[in-house]
Hints:
By secondary structure, chain A is of the alpha+beta class.
Amino acid sequence: MAESRVVGIDLGTTNSLVAYMEGDQPVVIPGVDGSNLVPSVVALDPIAAGGGRPTVTVGNSARRALIETPERVIYSVKRLMGRGLAEVESELRLFPFRLADDIEEGEVPRIQLGELRFTPPEISAYVLRQLKRNAERYFNKPVTQAVITVPAYFNDAQRQATKDAGRMAGLEVLRLVNEPTAAALAYGLDRAKEGTIAVYDLGGGTFDISILKLRDGIFEVQSTNGDTHLGGDDIDNLLLAVALDEIHAEHGVDLRAHPGAVQALRKVAIDVKVQLSSEPVAYFDFELPNGDRYQREIPRGVFEQLIEPVLDRTVGPCKQAMADAAIAPAQIDEVVLVGGSTRIPAVRQLVDQLFELSARGKKAHTDLNPDEVVALGAAVQADILAGASKTTEELLLLDVTPLSLGIEALGGVVAKIIQRNSTIPASATEHFTTGVDGQTNVAIHVVQGERELASDCRSLARFDLKGIPPMSAGLPRIEVKFLIDADGILHVSAREQRSGKQAEIEVKPTYGLTDEQVESMILDSFDHAEEDFAKRLLIEARNEAETILTKVEQAKTTPPWGALTDEEQASIEAAAMRLRSVKVGDDLAAIREATLALDRSTQRLAELMMDAAVTSAIRGKTMDSAAEELEENVTAPHPMAPAEFR
Amino acid sequence: MSNVLDSAIPVACWSCHVAQNNLTLFCSHCSKIQPAAAGDFFQVFGLDRTFQIDLEPLEREFHRLSRKLHPDRFARASGREREWSLVDTALLNDAYRTLKDPLFRTEYLLKLEGAEIGEEHAGKNRKGDEKEFSRAPADLLEEVFELNMQLEEMRASKKMGETDEQLQSDLAAAKAKFESLVTAVDEDLRQQWKIWDEGDAATRETAKTAMVALLDRRRYLSNLVRDVTEALGE
């Protein structure tokens, strides 16, 4: 492939993943720690340098900081993407983060993290950058283009915020794909299926239901519905609330004042939840700051009763989606379960009833890992967009807009111009005129939602049409074209038809960052320039070379060196000399080759040194502890192996 | 959210300069995508203007054109090809959405034929509900009057937290009746489609007037059904 790879990214509430197409199969790219999942947790490192970009950690290491320095860590930021101050405030009651205190309504809320503040897209950008780096390490090449998944029920602002995050992370976002649709793509890839499928996606923080029709490789979404604030987080919060109340009542300790303890308790709550998916009963066992223990048995029945209200909230969207697709449960051929929360047996029972599965001798599909299936589908879509692949050239996704688009008419009523579940891209043309003689601008308020009053819908933006030639009232005829693109994002253009003049539009997004703001938040501008990437790789390769050369020099003063034959010593010397000479040059491949050659020539030296280390470790110790150490040593890497090289 | 630039409309293919008729979405010579020009939804599918449409071939054609036009096929193409793909696909989707739905299609074609359609089927500008009673079709005046009384009673008893079973079953019966009237209107509409599709200019004019009236009646009936459904809390 001439052009660089396009990766597929699942930017999740709890975990994020990056995947790509390896031949005809989508594959998840693991991180440095070998894990496929990167927890969507971002921590600000304790020592922030004066000025410049802060040092942040992402993923598992950040998750550990959650208990030690909770005020410097943020998680589940997806819940805050593209949302206004009031919405975020109510959301934050459940989370330990604080907002910066000088934000005004209309601004994108910023979260206080240690001494710094970040907008939600910036936090997501750190997660995306980590995934980008994982992919670059894996391919050994820069990665600059991606497909990112979003909940199907995300509105315009939430989608735009996700795209902004991609740009800040140095990624060109070729497409936003709806998560359930991506999952369907991953499932339908090798089956050439025909029929109607429902995707029930209950993740960490969002719920989506989508109904699709598959035909000749075309995945046509019929309807979608959901709740962008419903997921595993809500279940965790319920368990957590029970534990906090009981601790307060039984031990007189109000842990809510101790964010670190709350986070530790949340972790126990999550463990309890996970255990209850496979066990009939699970236990809370938690040490309180005063040394007391909170111990509590949770039988599955009690848990199911507790979470029933949460699960019931998925029923309405499912019924609405079926009604919108004009389809009865019996007409759905397959149901696919996506998202970690669908591991809960009660969720599976609910899905079974909703779609009358066992009654029809069917079972929901769970054969792909529910945590990975969205990322795998994103990789398939990335392959479709990259083109030139036999596997995916026949596939095409036709998705829909989840919410109706409307404009505020007289009296605050909404005039719908694009109905929900319209296939995207979709467009609508509306005509406006003036109400006063000589009026030169017209304001249009665009909203998204199903309610009849604009104040009950979500405000998208206010457009100010300017530069209308002064005429009598009602005479100008301004044609405004609304277009929802394949990412589900709205574009607007306008023209005054009598003068033929392109009207100037000033857009005030109700929620969201301006272009300039996004530009100023781009994480590291050098990350996406190819030559800089090459420079970075070169520096890393030189460092590797330096490390192994130093180790060889040190080894020459140890007894194992003397145990080598003259030829062995000579071949190491020769390899080291070769590496020293290419190291000063700019030839990355030569440096890597020479480093590997030196590494191979020191194989026996390394073994001898390992033996010596084990012998000295065992000496003077009991057999037991020696065996333990041995085990540790045996799994340790080749002492001279360049770490993380290939 | 951002702005879309309005594309200019060339008369010749932008790529190979072969002259085009101004409705094609692809160059007849080099097959490159072309910016959409003004045309109606029937022309997008290469169809004559008729009320009766065979949905199977329409869907097949929709899929065939989607494969060629969709922005997914142009993710790495030039900026203007990407933009045209976006605008052309939006037109294709708008056309398919309108033509596959019998009511949308009827309203659309009637408007193309110069008919004035009142409040649109899509529920656009839903205001002035209070005027509905005066617009009640003459043959239904009495029933509508009674229904409105019952609806008032229903709302009142709901407010009091009571359930009047007699009233409930009366309303359910009324709902079934009005639903059957909607079905009857649909049947009449289909007949008019046929008459228009096969008729000469004069017949078409009569059919057009009939269809506009039928749509008015249908809209009125649907609103009644909606109100009753809401009152029943279903």
